[in-house]
From TrEMBL:
Keyword Transferase appears in the UniProt entry: yes
Protein's UniProt name: DNA primase
Boundaries of every Toprim domain copy: 198-296
SUPFAM superfamilies recorded: DNA primase core, Zinc beta-ribbon
Keyword Nucleotidyltransferase belongs to the record: yes
Protein keywords: DNA replication, DNA-directed RNA polymerase, Metal-binding, Nucleotidyltransferase, Primosome, Transcription, Transferase, Zinc, Zinc-finger
PANTHER family reported in the protein's UniProt record: DNA PRIMASE (PTHR30313)
């Protein structure tokens, strides 16, 4: 049997491959199919497949790519070993059963040729669509304009706008109603208070950072802050965190967040778990949105911890 070329393998629709492996999307938004990750345990879908690009990204581990990249992660093998397996019709073992499938390479899809993000322009937050998106995420426009920009970017030859949050290396986290991604280089963001503080807050994403400021009714944090922009980047914060006396952890209440906290413990960083502040919710932004809907406002006022301060508004 002829072995598929890399080009042919990349044309296999990822969502079809996942379906025949037993994985179904948790929800679909436009061209984006969201799954519970096939690469690690989780309770909230963080694995996205964009059908227009035929590309995937796992936000739980901060990795993504094409069909081949997914295959070598699933099999834990090299490209050289994966292509014959794919060509023979043998696919990933699901947790429950073996499944044998056969793919017939179809015509090459122009959408799958390129998924590189090119930043075209960075301006102040201003267009109605981006202002509406920030409001939808329960963040006030003045606060968002303090830390975010509006970024025009190109992907696969088409231009889009998104909320942009800069990292320390010049890349941007990009968000809008249908897109969640980042430009290169991917990195953490460090915000220094310059007040001699010995405390730092470690926060998973920038929406959670903005949400904490909203909850504390602050424009600027009273501690230093590290926004990971992906828990997969937790290792880049370790040496920095060792210089602080108090490390407050605002990580997601999921497996990936627990794994990140464990990595810090293994590095002798005994972070203070601040997730009790948003217990019952996956992250701080989800908690904030629930509060602003009004259903839990009274309960939040009763249960909000005051005695310790939880870092960002000490």
């Amino acid at each position: 049997m002829r072995t598929l070329s890399c080009g042919e393998a990349r044309q296999i629709p990822i969502i079809e491959y996942l379906a025949k492996c037993g994985y179904q999307p948790q929800y679909i938004r436009g061209n984006n199919y969201w799954y519970l990750s096939p690469l690690h345990e989780e309770s909230h879908a963080s694995f996205k497949v964009n059908t227009r690009l035929n590309a995937w990204f796992d936000f739980g581990i901060g990795e993504g790519g094409n069909m081949i990249d997914l295959g070598i992660r699933l099999y834990k093998c090299s490209v050289k070993d994966f292509l014959p397996l794919l060509s023979s019709g043998y696919t990933h073992l699901s947790p429950d059963a073996k499944m044998i499938i056969t793919f017939t390479p179809g015509p090459k899809s122009p959408a799958a040729k390129e998924n590189h993000i090119e930043i075209l322009d960075v301006t102040e937050l201003q267009t109605p669509a981006m202002v509406a998106y920030i409001k939808k995420r329960s963040i006030s426009q003045p606060l968002a304009k303090t830390y975010c920009k509006e970024v025009r970017f190109a992907i696969a030859g088409k231009n889009y706008n998104a909320i942009g949050f800069a990292n320390r290396s010049g890349g941007y986290e990009l968000r809008n109603d249908w897109f969640k991604g980042s430009s290169s280089p991917k990195d953490i963001t460090i915000l220094k208070n310059h007040n001699g503080t010995q405390a730092v807050c470690v926060i998973e994403g920038f929406m959670d950072f903005l949400s904490l400021l909203e909850l504390k009714q602050l424009r600027r944090p009273e501690t230093d802050v590290i926004i990971l922009n992906s828990v997969a980047l937790i290792g880049r914060s370790i040496e920095i965190l060792k210089s602080y006396k108090d490390v407050f952890l605002f990580l997601n209440n999921d497996k990936a967040g627990q794994t990140a906290a464990e990595k810090l413990r293994q590095a002798d960083i005994n972070g203070i778990d601040a997730s009790e502040f948003y217990k019952g919710y996956n992250d701080v932004n989800e908690y904030l949105s629930a509060q602003q809907r009004g259903a839990l406002q009274a309960q939040i006022r009763r249960e909000a911890p005051e005695e310790r301060g939880l870092g960002i508004g000490r």
